[in-house]
Structures are given as structure tokens and as C-alpha cells.
Amino acid sequence: MDDKQLEERLNLLKSSYDRLPSTLDTEEILTKIENEKNVLPIEKKTRGSKRQRITVWAVSVASVFVIGILGTAYLTESDETTTSDENYSDEEIEKWRKRYQDERIKRQHMLQMNVDDFTSLGFVQYADNIFASQIEPGTLEGKNDNISVKEAYDLAIEGLNLPSEMIKVAKNLGKLDSKESSYFVDDFVTKTEHLMAYYEQKLWDNEEALKIAKHEGRLSEHVLIANRYNIPEEIKSMIEVLPKQGLKLAVNAEGTKFQIKPDLALFTRDLFSVLDENEARYLGIYDLIPGYGIATLVEEQELSQLGYYLASIEFTLLNTSENSAMHSRFENHYFELAEMIIFPSDIGEILNDDNKINIEAHMAWETLVNIPGVSPLATFMKPVVASMKSSDWTYNETYKLLDIEQLRDYYLLALDNELEINKLDWLSILPDGVEKSLETPYTMYGIHELYKKFNENFNPLMLHGAGPLDITLLYHYADGQDNHEMMWELMTSAFKNEYKKEEFVENPTLQNIIGDSAKNLYFNKEYLTPDKNNLKTYIGQEKGNQVSYDILLRLENDDIWRIQGEEDYLISKVEPVDDKLLQRIQDLYKSFVRTYDQTVLKEATPSEIVGLYYYSAQLKDFETQYELYIKEEGRIQIPKDEYMNAEHQYIEDIRLVFKEMKFEKKLNGEGVVTLTKYPDEQDIIIGFQLIPTDNGWRPPFMPTQ
Amino acid sequence: MLELELIERAQQGDKAAYTELIHIHYRTVEKFAFQCGVQVNDIPDITQEVFVKLYRFLHQFQRDRFTTWLYKITLNSARDYYRKEIKEKEKGQKLNVEVRESYTSKSAEDRVLVFEEDRELHHAIQSLDEKYRHPIIMFYFHELSYEQIAEVLNVPLSTVKIRLMRAKALLKSRLQMSGGVKHGR
Q: Per-residue confidence at A583, pLDDT binned at 50, 70, 90?
């Protein structure tokens, strides 16, 4: 079927819809309107495009109001039991009415509005409705009997509270749980939007008068504020009130219109300690995407930045209540923004002339792929980004097959906790090298937060995205706090299999991983190496004059870096068997061969010990070789005569036989040096066992068996 | 009387003018609601709701935006209805109750969509996600421009274009999957 055929069928269907029966009852509609007592303003006002925006809010805001009485009950200290309203006489109700009027006037003055304007505000109408339906004389028969008059009064007053007051009330109440927080945020945003809508209208009504506020041909809020004594009174009041209610005056990108924008960052700062941390995130992202939808954001921001915003929205959605108005609103923004970023209407927007994805787009996409934790976006984008990266970001088939519906499926799975964790591309995320000073407080800046979060219930997801340096610092911090349980949780599963939790928690075998002399911690990508199916790395610290990479971390299957439990000196870096190594071996040989003083080899590295072993063979000095063997009790010992008379392996030149060596320490504390021979030799790779002693590493008898 | 004049009078509280407006537009609302997934029997309720709501918002919009608002409000009402329907169905499924469209609503639909071809296409449209469903309906059945659709849905113009393109592709593939009914007309 082609487009034309489809359109033909759509046309036929269109005419079939004419058969739809009609049962219009105009009378009933008019009666219903009459019953709603919808009194229209008689005065016709000037209208313009702004109105449209206002009404968009009005509609979206209407959905928020559905929360209604139940929604706002979080702020009611309703310790009173339900009472019958028969207890209230007309006089008492008149008292409620008087009190309510006083409260109303108080807010009206705070907003510097006249009574009609104040009454037109959505949340004031809502409060009035509660009051009228629940308390006003003559309407008691229609009221909800589950709510006492006192409770209804409190609800009406809460309805009247301005955004600034809501913050104060919430602060006094203390910590709100996630459900209460989500009601709060919905309510707060609703009121903010009612005020925005009102002030946008005022801007529109005064458009002509405001044209004086221009600077170099563009409208300027600064000029307007400076001239506030020469402009209409209601605009002057607006300028004074806006910042008090978390709003600000701005000018559109073209410099042709004034706008009202939320300015919540500072205004709501006190809420962040009161509200549930995740629900509070909506306030932050609301500042970016207020009532208008994502269009403004898309116009104003670089594509690469949009990727970051999208990631923030996703995180917020996945960690907040699904029932709030903000959740459903941002769900829409999420999919729209995702579509914008991933499927721009004109593919040319993201392509360079050479058919490659431009840098802005691939930065945005890489941000999506590297979202830590469970991420529908990352899961969705991974195959495309991987395939494009391998072809230098050439536009390809994998992209063409991408369907946004799949993102929707992943999102639903994630909401149901059924989406698997997104494994990060650590090889690209980790920088080539990082040096973190242990002497400035900044290094521990994010670590306290991480500690707090992880300490709540040791949820591993909290650690996802934290790099090996962060985990090392976290372990160090937990150690400082004597939080042995957290230290245990940060160990690798291999370590946990080897040891008992109770014993470790009682007496951690791995403390002070960062030495007192260390001034910096180092990460070096050279030490980031494959490890089974995953990765491992070493974090370095200063010991004496050298940087010792001695803290081993492994990336585990859940994509989280954990401490391996290595405390001792350890180098996994591949070391070539070259002149340099030989020189060091010869120096050691000279010192050792005179007296066979074991302490001479105390500081020798595993490679040097192995090198010395084979160098002795090269020199046919099997006595020295014999002296290298471990002498500790409990280890197999062979009489020297016997050893000297046995057959020996001869080596011409260790540099010609062995190509490189690599050391690895095993969980039992012993070590293995892997020697790689040159290809023409047999047994290309051999393992050489080493045992730690008080005098450094030593081979047991038959170390290569 | 011109429609714009009617709107202005209705905005000033003239009920007769508003009645006139209802008469001009009610078919659009009914059809649009049905196309958006409202069942035949529920259309009167939705239509009533739309015109009551429209009156509530009447003083807030520009006269030349009347049509946009009509669609916007109908869409929201249909959307709420659709979601409620889906929830009801899910509830039914959870309770292991087989939920079927009632006999009356089914046969009412059959009276509108007499031909199998139409029913197939109508259901294919219903099966689309709403973001694809709505642009298709407004573009092909109501002849709204891209700009108008963008305004109704409150999305950028480019989004409308891409959604329409995708919607058509999805429809074609769904119709092809079901084999494409040849008979009936």
C-alpha cells in the first residue's frame, strides 16, 4: 500500500463518519451551564496570543486541581474527629465567614491586587468554593459530611495560601514523605501557574504602555524595573510582588514581548530539606520547562545540553510517584523531548555534509547512553551509539530502525522495575588520568552525599555511576566513620565469599587504605585492564617519593566498582623484560650474592625476584638460585646438595627468552608472575608462583609447576 | 450572522449566540470524539461536557482561536474518557472478567462503519498511540492545517509533521499486516 492508497481509504472513511447518529440536546447543555452559575465577564477584554498560553495553563492546571480536598489534606493538622455540623449555629458560621474574609483580604494585600483581580485567581476561586460548599450558611445540606467545618475552614485557608506562605508552612511541618511531597509540589506549581497566568494577562493588557521600556530596540526588563514609577500601577505592583512569589520578569528571545517566568531556585531552597528529595526535583526541572511545554527549551538550548535535561527528567520520573500531575506532565515532556533529540523532524539538523552525525547530536546521545542506573533512554540508545561510534558516527541502518515506541516500552518496564540496569561504557567514561588532592575539602564534596544515600539501606543502585576513585574515597570515609558495615558492602563479592561478614565488621582486615603520607589519589587509565568479563583498576597514592598503585578495584556484574581487598604492594602493569629490568636485576644480584642476606631482597618487586631467579640460571649460579627459595617453616625444603646435583634449566639470555612479565596477587595473598615468552619458544606463557614473606616475595620449590 | 460576531456576543454572555455556535459545531465535536475512541453511546455525554467546558473558557480566548479551542477541549474530554475506558478494561482483566464492548455499542458502531474496510481502518487508527492518532484524525478527517494541529496539541510544527509521517507509516504497516480487506465496498 502506498501513501495515495492510504489517503483514498482515509477519505472514504471520512465520509462514513457522516453516518454517526446525533442526539444533541442544546437545552440540557444550557441548563447545565446555568447550574454551574458560570457568569461571564460582560466587559470584553483585548485579547492576543498570550491569552492562548494562559488558557493552556488553565487547562493543565485544571487537572492539578483534581487533587482537591484529599490532596491538600497533607497540611491539615486534623486531630479533630469528624463532627456533626449541627453543632455550629448560624452565628458561629458567620464568625467563620468573617475570619475567612480577613484571611482573604490579607492575601489580597500581599499581592497588591484589587478584589476582583484577586477573586479571579484560580486558587482563590478554589478556596472560595471549599468555603462556600462546606461552610457558608444555607449550603450545609450540600456539604461533605466527612469533613468538619473546622477542617473545611483549614482547607480553604490552605487553598488561599500564597506560594511564599506554602513554603513557610511546610518548613514548620518538618519532613514530608514522598506522597505528601508530591501533593505539595503539584499544589505549589498550580498556584505559581495561576499567578503567572494572571500576570501574563496584565502584561498583555498593558502591552502598549510597556513599549517604553526598550534598550537598543529590544524590550528590557531592567529598563522597565528602573522606570516602574512611570508605568501603570498594576505593573508596578507586579514588579514588586513577582520576586516575593518566586517569579520573575523576562523578555522573549526576539526582544519583543515581556514574559513571566518561574524563578524557583533560590525561592524554594528551604523546601529541599523538607520535601522528599526526588519529588523536589520537579521544582528544579519546572524552572526549565514551565507551563509552555518544551518548545521554548528546545529553541533556547543547545542540543548537547538538551540531552542532559532529558536525562534529568528521566531520573525524576523513575524516582517519583506516578500519580502526581507533575509526573504525567513531565512524562509528556520526556517523550516529546526524546523525540526531538533523537528524531529531529529534519534529519539534516543532526547531519554534517559528510553524512555523519554532528558533534552536538552525538554529545547529546552519548549523554543518554551514559545515564547511570536503570535507564530506558540508555537502553534504547546503546545499540545506535555503539554502531555509530564504530563507524565514526556515520548515519546508519541501526538508526533508521530505531522506533520511539521501543523507548515507551522500556520506560514502562523501568516503572515496573523490570528493566535491567544500564551498564556504562567505563572505557570511554573514565578519563585518561585524574589526580585528586586529599588536602582540599572539594575532593570529599560529593562523597558525603554518596555516603548518606548509600548508608540508608546499602542500596547498590546508589553507587551506580560512581567511578573507582569515588568508591575508594567512600571506603576511606566509611573507615573514618567506623562504618564497618558499609566497608563490607563496598568489598567485591570474591572477597565476601572468602571472608565472614561478622568477623570483618568486628575487625576489618582492610583499614586505612589511604596512607597518612598520601597527598593525592591517582587514577591512570593505563591501569584500567580487562578482568574476566569486566574491568579492574588500581588507584594510586603517594608512598614516600613514589606513587604506588596499590588499591585494587574490580567492576562487578552489577556495574559497580568495589574494593578487591588488596592492601599490599601490587603492580599489574605488564613489564617488558628489557635492559632496564636486567640492570635492576644485576644490581640486586650483586648485593645479594655476597652474603645471601635475605633482607637485601625485602623491597624487590615480584618481577625482580623472578628475573633474579632466571638470571642466576643464565649465569649457571644455581647456588644463588637455591638461596632465593622460601625458607619459612612449613614450606617444602630441599637439601642444598640435592638441589645442586639435580638437573637445571639453562638460559642463554633472559631478555631473549622472555618478552614480558605481569604480576597478580591472589585472594589468598600469594602471587603469580605470568611470563610471556617469545613465540618461537615452547609454552609461550608460564605462571611463576611467589609467596609473601617478611623479607619480600620468594618462590617455593618448583614455582612453575 | 458571522461566526466571529456570534463568538463575540457569546463572550459577552449572549446565550442565544452560544446556542447558535453549538449548532454550528456540534457535529464536529461528535465526529471528533468518535474518531478519538469514544463509543457511540457515550458521545452525547462527551458533547455536552465539551460545550459546558467551552463556555467556561469562552471569555478567555481570542475569537479566531475558537476552532482550536473546540478541538483542544474535545480532545481533552476524549482523552480522559479513553483513559477511563482503558482503566475499566484493565480492572476487568484483573478481575478475570472478560470485558467486551456491549452489544448495543458494538452494533451502533457497525451502523456507522458499515464496510469492513472502514472498520479495519478505524480500528487501525484506534490502535495507534494517541500522539499519532490525533494528528491523523485532525489532518485527514477535519482538514486542520499543520499549524492548527500544532496549536491544538501544543507541540511544535516540526513535531506535527514527523508524527503525521510516522502515523501514516504505522497505519500502512498495520493494514498490510492484517492483509488489507479488499471486499465490502
A: very high
| Interface contact A17-B35, CB threshold 8 A | yes
Quickly state the pLDDT bin for B93 (edges 50, 70, 90).
Answer: low
Q: What pLDDT, on the 0 to 100 scale, is given for residue A79?
A: 40
How far apart are the CA of A58 and the nearest CA of chain B, in angstroms? 9
Is residue B185 within 8 angstroms of chain A, CB to CB? Answer: yes
Asked if residue B16 belongs to a domain, the reply is yes
| Residue in chain B lying closest to A15 (CA) | B141
Pair (B72, B8) in one structural domain: yes
Say what the ipTM of the complex is: 0.89
- Tens digit of pLDDT for each residue in A377-403? 999 998 888 888 888 888 888 888 888
| pLDDT tens digits along A431-440 | 888 888 888 7
Specify the CATH number for the domain of residue B7.
1.10.1740.10
Give every CB contact of residue A255 below 8 A, 6+ residues apart in sequence. Answer: A217, A218, A219, A220
* SS (HEC) of A150-202: HHHHHHHHHHHCCHHHHHHHHHHHCCCCHHHHHHHHHHHHHHHHHHHHHHHHH
Q: Which of A17, A42, A343 sits opposite B112 (nearest CB)?
A: A17
Domain assignments of chain A as residue spans, ordered by start: 293-422, 428-563, 575-698
CB–CB of A213/A219 below 8 Å? Answer: yes
Q: Is B177 contained in some domain?
A: yes
Residue located via cell numbers 546508519: A396
Grid cell in block for residue A672: 603469580
Q: Does B8 touch chain A (CB under 8 A)?
A: yes
- The answer as to whether B102 is a domain residue is no
Domain span including residue B173: 114-185
Q: What CATH number is given to the structural domain containing B177?
A: 1.10.10.10
Chain B interface mutation, best of A20, A198, A402, highest count of B Cβ atoms under 10 Å? A20
Q: What is the mean pLDDT of chain A?
A: 83
Q: Do B57 and A30 touch (CB under 8 A)?
A: no
Q: Is residue B93 part of a domain?
A: no
Task: Give B 106-135 residues with CB within 8 A of chain A.
Answer: 108, 111-115, 117-118, 121-122, 129, 131
Q: Is the pLDDT at A9 greater than 50, yes or no?
A: yes
